[in-house]
Amino acid sequence: MIIELDISELKNCDMTLADFLREQGVRLILPCGGSGMCGKCRVRLMAEDKWVLACQTKMSMFNQSVIRVEIPDAWVAGTYATKKSAYDRILFQSDNAGNLSGDQINKYKKWSAATDLGSTTIETAAVTPEGELIGTVRHENPQRTYGADVLSRIKAASEGKIAASDMQRLAESTIQSELAELADKYGLPSRPDTLAIAGNTTMEHLLAGDNVSPLGHAPFDPGDIGLRDISNVFFSDDSKAYLLPGITAFVGGDILSGMYYLDMDRSPEYTLLLDLGTNGEMAFGNHDGFIVASVAAGPAFEAANISCGCAGVPGAISAVSFTGQRPHLTLIPWGLDTRGLAPGERMQADMKLKVKRPTGLCGSGLVSAAAAMKKAGIIDETGTYTKDDWIRDGFPLWKGRGEEDIRLTQDDIHELLMAKAAIAAGLEILLDSVHEMPRRVYLAGGFGEGLSISDATEIGLFPESLKDVDIIPAGNTSLKGAVKFLSGENEAAARMSRMQETSREIRLGDDPRFKNLYIRNMKI
Hints:
Number of helices: 16
Oligomer: single chain
Structural class: alpha/beta
Number of strands: 21
Distance between the termini: 39 Å
């Protein structure tokens, strides 16, 4: 997009271009929180024909009263729709889930809603009084303008009340807009009777307006992580809104909600729930209790710190394979429906999409690319490119005429290696601590849903000890658990409370084995 900005009455020349754009309602996604490290906020100053980092460019550099700026759409919060929800891959036992007719929907005078308050996306589901799914909507979390990871947002919120208040408003207004969208789409009353929200500890505290600074430094005090009534944040009538409980500062309500959904507390068999994100969260156990842990993996699995990285949006590269050293790319569909076009027009539209520059490389695409490069001999077992020019310039995954190449750099591979090594080392310590093996491993979240298990195994994401264990992508278990909560709030609250009480945290970073295991896993 190209926008024109009137800066004739600018009073604070020390603010950055990113801050000024935010004031004008244009929120850039800043994965690094505005430190200048990720390079994702590149914008073009039209007059100078120069690309600059908006988070590092002071408004004092401009001496004109009007400036024109070109901004890549993919890095403006709210300019793209997220890919189709993975929610309905594994949902309810009911055969009718997600398949209600218009007549069935319109007869309901009451409904409830569940929200997964993720750091990257926010997804809300509408549910009938009988617990049947009506539909879901999902949008990106606009808090990403304060950073891709929770630590960046904790830092921003701790440095100023304005940022903390803004992040609360952004989350609340996004959920409210999703409720309104569901009500309008399915002919429901304007407000649900009950809203259940699951998120990590930081996301829930920001929504509740709590002080999050204790989460940013030792001893990482989680504050109030019980089941909380926050109806006053959302509603002025009798409708209720609840924040689901969490376990620790870094194993929050999203994980506990997933544990509840999967009935891990009722299973005599050991199971492991793994959420691969900026913080790799793990919960292992059975009906007798749980061991939980988290490890700082960094944002590589979300591709936030990858030079050509992007979220799982239309046009993103989600898988890579090779014929020799020639890459073949699989993209998340662009979302353009060409079925209504005449045959000739449809062919032209499809041809344009085939040569259109991909949006970037998403997290599952990054893992796929690394696995495929290893098989093709493009990188060695240390993750190093086998040709000097690739080490210097990166490997070209896509080349186009007159457009910037999409290249995976050596630093990008290193970022993936660090994230993968942290998860693998953490899993080894966790499994060694319990002296048991899980019967199943559930992968939670959107990244787990899109991840190829064979690709993940190829790069050594999972320890050798799990080679014979079923690894199952479970989708958005956080949202599914929140939906399940709505069907029996009292029972759900009691079970979640017991899981809290019977969970023990191990601090992976404090374990003396972690460093050596981390180094050992820094290979593909």
